[in-house]
Design brief:
about 110 residues, alpha+beta, Ybab, Chain: A, 3-stranded antiparallel sheet, about 15% strand
Length: about 110
């Protein structure tokens, strides 16, 4: 019984180390989302914080500001989706082979 407990503790420590590494890698991510065929690009980090924005000068028309606003929103949402995908992929890579019950949400 004690050997099993030691094995479980070792697995828990390994999982904690992997989760810490995943968090570091996720925080270091920078992902570009685009809209309008690349006329607007939003850059988000792994914490879903907007860290950059590029807008093609051709969109700087005061009469069409609503189009620009829509493209900015679309680019940010695209980047957010890509960040989620990248983080999920890192989680999948890092937790392969660990005895984690199906459907369990990580990080805890």
């Amino acid at each position: 019984m004690m050997r099993d407990l030691g094995k479980i503790m070792k697995q828990a420590q390994e999982l904690q180390a992997r989760m810490s590494k995943i968090q570091e890698e996720a925080n270091a991510l920078e992902v570009d989302g685009q809209a309008g065929g690349g006329l607007v690009t939003a850059t988000l980090n792994g914490k879903n914080e907007l860290v950059g924005m590029k807008i093609d000068p051709s969109l700087a028309n005061p009469d069409e500001i609503e189009i620009l606003e829509d493209l900015v929103i679309a680019a940010v949402n695209d980047a957010r989706r890509l960040v989620e995908q990248a983080v999920q992929e890192k989680m999948k890579e890092m937790t392969e082979g660990l005895p984690i019950p199906p459907g369990m949400k990580l990080p805890f």
